[in-house]
Write a structure and sequence with these properties.
By secondary structure, this protein is α/β, with parallel strands linked by helices. The protein is built from 19 helices and ten strands. The protein has one domain: TIM Barrel (Alpha-Beta Barrel). Helix content is 49%, strand content 8%. It binds zinc ion (ZN).
């Protein structure tokens, strides 16, 4: 038995340490249209659009709904999912209720006017400060793509970035579906060829190196389908082995792989139309074995992959599991994954990231996650005490500060 309340110590630790959120799609206000916040963006996020498309009013087709202007869509989502004849009980819907409560707004309002007025009353900078403070978040990692038509020119021209936003070089648009990206890369001065030649690989490595340095990127990230195989003659595998892993090794930054997305199983749902598949984890064993000096941040989308990812983490110190991604970001699944990671990996993983795309989402994602994760930690610390370990509140503070501060790899 401990001579202090473990539950209280765990809750204090979460309260005393601001979160470092290692994967988001958030951007500072200085990045203009990439900065997304407020009720209309929040309500029309693809999670809720996909849920509303199951509950549309009679006579409104999915396609018609998807092509409505944002404010009309937000109004319809509010009406169908929150004001209508069912309780907003899904995780995404519950999230909106949490956000509104944290902002002191009435979640049973008949329309969005109060929320819209509240959002409009603050500048983007004020809104950002308010959300970070309210959510207990110290800093967030962005998803940065130099080939993006909006974002690329901002970096080219030089941009002031709020120091709470850290850069991450996103690789998908430059490496997937080769040679589709070749023209864009050549336009930026990288002399890649349409074939996967040594010259192409060398120029792509130069692109990655230049942009990691220009952005001060903390890691390089890519999202991959469940049929990603290593080794393989597929162009994306060739890119990973000849471009990404050697560059990560040379620059001494992690290579993050988010694996398991199947794109557009239902194109009608647009952004909401992606699904998932299980990956063969033997691929990760081969990657980790071939590249022992590269640190891999790994998150897998299929629940069925989670236990074996922990086991692979035990075999390879360069494999770093992180977060409960996308369809896993639900309380019942977070509870299970966090427990099995603590049991198999101790404290050597990053328990969660928000994946937030709309600033306000930080207000519910972390509250909900910590609400589920804290009891798992309490349970494990109680077992540790019961086994005879003289645990102190300082031990708990240290563990939580490290694991939710980006982990050992990124702090
Ligand atoms: Zn993401």
């Amino acid at each position: 038995m401990s001579d202090f309340s473990i539950a209280e110590a765990v809750h204090n630790a979460f309260e005393n340490h601001a979160i470092v959120d290692i994967h988001t799609h958030l951007y500072p206000a200085s990045m203009g249209e990439l900065y997304l916040a407020g009720p209309d963006e929040l309500l029309t996020y693809h999670y809720l659009k996909a849920e509303c498309s199951r509950m549309l009013p009679e006579g409104v087709a999915v396609d018609t709904f998807n092509n409505m202007p944002t404010t009309e869509q937000a109004d319809m989502i509010w009406q169908q999912l929150f004001v209508g004849n069912s309780s907003p009980i899904s995780e995404a819907q519950l999230g909106i209720v949490t956000v509104m409560n944290r902002l002191g707004l009435n979640p049973r309002a008949k329309n969005l006017s109060e929320f819209r007025a509240f959002h409009k009353s603050k500048t983007p900078e004020e809104y950002t400060d308010m959300v970070f403070e309210n959510a207990g978040v110290a800093s967030v990692y962005m998803t940065n793509d130099p080939l993006d038509a909006t974002e690329g020119p901002m970096w080219q021209q030089g941009i002031d970035i709020d120091s709470r936003f850290k850069a991450v070089l996103r690789l998908d648009s430059a490496l997937m579906n080769w040679p589709a990206p070749a023209d864009k890369l050549r336009a930026m001065g990288y002399n890649v060829e349409d074939c996967l030649s040594d010259k192409t690989f060398a120029e792509l490595r130069r692109y990655l190196t230049d942009w990691v340095q220009k952005m001060d990127a903390r890691y390089m990230a890519i999202s991959l389908p469940p049929d990603f195989a290593y080794p393989s003659e597929d162009s994306i595998t060739q890119m990973m082995g000849n471009v990404v892993y050697p560059t990560a090794h040379e620059l001494q930054i992690p290579s993050a792989m988010m694996i398991g997305v199947t794109r557009q199983v239902n194109p009608l749902l647009k952004d909401g139309g992606d699904s998932l598949g299980k990956w063969d984890i033997a691929n990760l064993e081969r990657i980790a074995r071939d590249w022992p000096d590269v640190n891999f941040l790994i998150t897998l989308l299929s629940r069925e992959n989670q236990h074996e990812l922990c086991v692979t983490g035990r075999k390879f110190p360069n494999v770093h599991p992180f977060g409960c991604w996308w369809f896993l970001n639900n309380p019942s699944i977070i509870r299970e994954i966090t427990a099995e990671r603590l049991e198999l990996l101790g404290t050597s993983f990053v328990p969660q990231h928000s994946d937030a795309r709309i600033l306000d989402q930080l207000l519910y994602k972390w509250t909900h996650s910590i609400g589920v994760i804290a009891p798992v930690f309490i349970d494990k610390y109680e077992s540790l005490c019961a086994a005879g370990w003289p645990l102190t509140p300082a031990d708990i503070q240290r563990d939580i500060a490290t694991m939710f501060g980006g982990g050992k790899l990124l702090d």
